[in-house]
Design goal:
Layout: E1 18-22, E2 30-36, E3 39-50, E4 63-70, H1 86-100, E5 111-121, H2 126-140, E6 150-157, E7 160-163, H3 167-170, E8 176-184, E9 189-193, H4 201-238
Parallel strand pairs: 4-5
Antiparallel strand pairs: 1-2, 2-3, 3-5, 6-7, 6-8, 8-9
């Protein structure tokens, strides 16, 4: 089958409209919001702080814990059951692995950094939006990071490689493959690569190349939001 044009009218390599903000949760040590189209993720960072109970502490380095949660009426599909699920645990784990590589946790022995990701509204790409928001929140918390982590979902719809699949494409009645990736734009490394579906080798390589280009664009949006916060704070200080 041939996928002639995207359902929402975007180009095949086009990302949905993006929005990014930091410092959105006042009582958190660091926080951020990131949006892909109708998918919105909020992330809050607490720590580094002492880890209790003490038997969980690691004297050699700190621990990163991530918690991913979709609110019950956030999904474009069926209502999400409240509370933990196998899917939320799996996404929490891969988010932790995607972010951990940019942190020097040896600077925080016996400590923990907790990252809470909440999605009040989703329309596909939720784990990628969550990773983007969490990366910004870690930077907002003042943790030393080797690079920003940017994430996007690429994939296949019939015979076309597409960037940033939305819900209508994920549920498309045809051949669909979803490939979430997380990328370090400065270091040029992939920290997350998953795939749901079947993709020929050549198409997979093309998808990854397009995903990397998209992550570089996302990184600029993230950095701009972080810089904007400090510009605004500087204006307030002058006033």
């Amino acid at each position: 089958m041939t996928y002639e044009r995207r359902i929402d009218g975007r180009k095949f390599d086009e990302i949905r409209p993006m929005e990014a903000k930091v410092g959105v949760i006042k009582r958190a040590d660091g926080s951020a919001m990131f949006r892909f189209g109708n998918t919105i993720a909020y992330a809050a960072v607490y720590g580094p702080r002492n880890l209790y109970p003490k038997f969980l502490q690691d004297p050699a380095q700190g621990i990163l814990r991530c918690y991913y949660n979709m609110m019950p009426f956030s999904s474009s599909g069926e209502r999400v059951r409240p509370g933990g699920s196998r899917r939320s645990k799996e996404i929490s784990m891969v988010t932790e692995k995607a972010l951990k590589t940019v942190l020097n946790l040896k600077e925080y022995p016996n400590s923990v950094v907790d990252v809470f990701i909440e999605l009040p509204q989703t329309e596909a790409g939720s784990r990628c939006a969550g990773i983007c928001a969490a990366s910004m929140a870690l930077a907002d918390a003042g943790l030393i990071m080797k690079d920003m982590v940017s994430a996007i979902s690429v994939g296949r719809v019939d015979d076309k490689v597409v960037v940033d699949l939305d819900y209508s494409e994920e549920s498309y009645d045809g051949i669909v493959a979803d490939i979430p990736i997380a990328y370090l734009p400065t270091l040029g490394k992939i920290t997350l690569l998953q795939m749901d579906g079947i993709v020929p080798k050549k198409m997979l390589i093309d998808a990854l190349q397009q995903g990397i280009k998209a992550c570089q664009k996302i990184s600029e949006v993230q950095k701009k939001a972080l810089k904007q916060k400090y510009v605004l704070e500087g204006v307030e200080d002058v006033q």
